[in-house]
Design goal:
Length: 429
């Protein structure tokens, strides 16, 4: 029996709770540290469990064994801990769970966002992490949304491929056993392809490019104080300029890759590729028009109906909508995503004018200060996962301290993951 701890309470946790609890070889606990959320979720789940409307087949019903609101109530000897919640809360959960986790646990995030390994090492300790398994998915396995809290969730589109890193030594380890277990837990699709290392996952963080840039592109020439009659479409509302901006920022990320490989020839970054390739690999035939990033955004059925995050306002007795710049597209994907990539670029000496355009606009909308005079030295940098926040001043120190050039797991880790594999046999869906 595999003991699984799911951390969070949002869209992804609803899907994971349904999928994993539907198995007869798992014991599933959901932990939410958000005040009142655990009680709300526990009370809402019906006896038959959470219904997940599955885009790949029959609906799935699963009910977690426990929903708790305190870290001290987690089961002993956990096998896997999954964070599926905003990355700015990762540190809070890691600190809360630290006294109750044993070395050897597999712990990670869906998605990992930028610098998840840096955050884990900082809070759990280097020795603990080197004797456990850290993992991160580059993105969620699906686009999903809650239809009825605690009762019904819909998978709008399951990605075809998602890259994952499992890293006992925070290097280029590809742990096929743990990846296999994760694959069985999330379903038969997407295919979980091994990424090269945590650095590759950080730089391939699609949300950090997608969400801030699409928001910037949509609002760049608009007065954000003028309300909308209805929430505007997010992906389907993107214009050609936005598609081109996404491509240029991705080009800047690939320039970071080129510089890193030139300086460290043994480094593996094969899994880091352009966002246009990511779209094709992730959604394939779900995309109607593959001509450009612009057309792919507007014809991907997995993105249909998704709107910009908004907040309701009343104008002369009518409900209108203003942009919600406190949504995770800004509070998460900027400080835990694009800022991390920008920090690595700064260490590598790579200029990022297009990335900077987006960061400067987003930080203004947030009322934050990260990038100042072309450098990451703003007063709010301490609330990010940029390398500079953790004291890294040189590229060499960043690469060596985080073992991005290592490639061999320890024997203890190999033994641990072999025992882990025996606890999960076949997928539930």
């Amino acid at each position: 029996m595999m003991k699984v701890l799911l951390c969070g309470g949002g869209n992804a946790i609803h899907v994971l709770s349904s999928y994993i609890s539907a198995r007869d070889d798992t014991h599933v606990t959901v932990l939410s540290l958000f005040p009142g959320e655990a009680d709300k979720l526990r009370d809402a789940i019906p006896d038959e469990g959470i219904r997940c409307i599955n885009d790949l087949g029959d609906d799935v019903y699963g009910k977690p064994d426990a929903v708790i609101g305190k870290a001290e109530d987690v089961p002993q000897d956990l096998d896997i801990v999954v964070f599926a919640l905003p990355s700015f809360t990762h540190e809070m959960y890691l600190k809360a769970l630290k006294p109750y986790l044993k070395a050897g646990v597999t712990i990670g995030a869906m998605p990992g966002e930028g610098g998840f390994d840096l955050c884990a090492i900082h809070n759990l300790g280097s020795d603990f992490c080197r004797h456990s398994n850290l993992f991160a998915l580059e993105t969620l396995p699906w686009a999903c949304r809650i239809l009825e809290y605690g009762k019904k969730v819909e998978v709008l589109g399951t990605k075809k491929e998602v890259e994952v890193i499992v890293s006992p030594k925070h290097g280029t380890t590809k742990d096929e056993v743990v990846t296999e277990v994760l694959h069985k837990l999330v379903g038969r699709l997407p295919e979980l392809d091994p990424a090269d290392n945590f650095l590759a996952v950080t730089l391939m963080n699609i949300n950090s490019v997608w969400h801030p840039t699409i928001s910037y592109g949509f609002y760049r020439n608009k007065d954000v104080t003028v309300p909308f009659d209805e929430p505007p479409l997010f992906y389907y509302g993107a214009d050609e300029y936005t598609g081109e901006k996404l491509s240029k920022i991705s080009d800047e990320v690939l320039e970071i890759k080129r510089v890193l490989l030139e300086k460290y020839p043994s480094l593996h970054l094969h899994s880091l590729h352009h966002v246009s390739e990511w779209m094709l690999r992730s959604y394939g035939d779900d995309i109607g028009d593959k001509t450009s990033i612009y057309t792919m955004l507007r014809t991907n059925k997995g993105y249909r109906g998704l709107t910009h995050p908004m907040r309701e306002v009343q104008v002369e007795g009518q409900t209108k909508y203003l942009p919600n710049f406190r949504y995770r597209y800004f509070t998460e994907d900027l400080p835990m995503g694009l800022i991390v990539t920008r920090g690595i670029a700064e260490l590598a000496g790579v200029k990022t004018p297009h990335m900077d355009d987006v960061i400067l606009w987003c930080q203004e909308m947030l009322g934050k200060e990260y990038l100042v005079d072309g450098e990451l030295k703003g007063k709010d940098l301490e609330y990010t996962r940029a390398p500079q926040r953790y004291g890294f001043k040189t590229l060499d120190a960043f690469m060596e301290t985080n073992h991005y050039l290592d490639d061999a797991p320890t024997k203890a880790v190999e033994n641990h993951v072999s025992s882990l594999a025996t606890k999960v046999e076949t997928p539930a869906q």
